[in-house]
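[Automated response] Your request has been received and processed.

Submitted sequence:
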Amino acid sequence: MKSSTTESAIAWFNGRDRRAHRRHDLLDRAIVVERLDSAREKVAARKKAPAETTLGQLIDLSAGGIRLRSSDKSTTVGSQIRVRIELPSFAGISPFIDHSGPTIRPKREWTGVLTVVRVREVGNDVEIGARLEDIDELDRGMLSLYLSTQPLAA
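Generated structure:
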């Protein structure tokens, strides 16, 4: 009788892993994920107190998704959040590219939409798992190359 660990290893080796992209541990880098508010919310926030722009701290990242720890307990599965992520260059590799001009240039930040697929309470915070929705294939490829220099997450 095979153990579940052995069966998992065999499934991974045969290519039956449930993840399309491997996760990489970035918790020790203390990278902040910023929430971008819509223009309507910014106008309302000016009338009240200034809006909080920090969504949470990055735990791990893959070319297709993100996991972060947040104090925002109002986040629900299925919600879409517009965010900005800025990653440091590492080993001479920038995580994203800017192809809006006549030449391709490296860049360190990505702005896009996350779709929340999992929310789990962890103490006083919540752990949010989300897909990177509108990342283009060039940025996904650069992010994958960038992450290949990082340690894998468990």
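Summary generated for your ticket: DSSP finds three helices and nine strands in the chain. The radius of gyration is 17 Å.
If you did not submit this request, please reply to this message.
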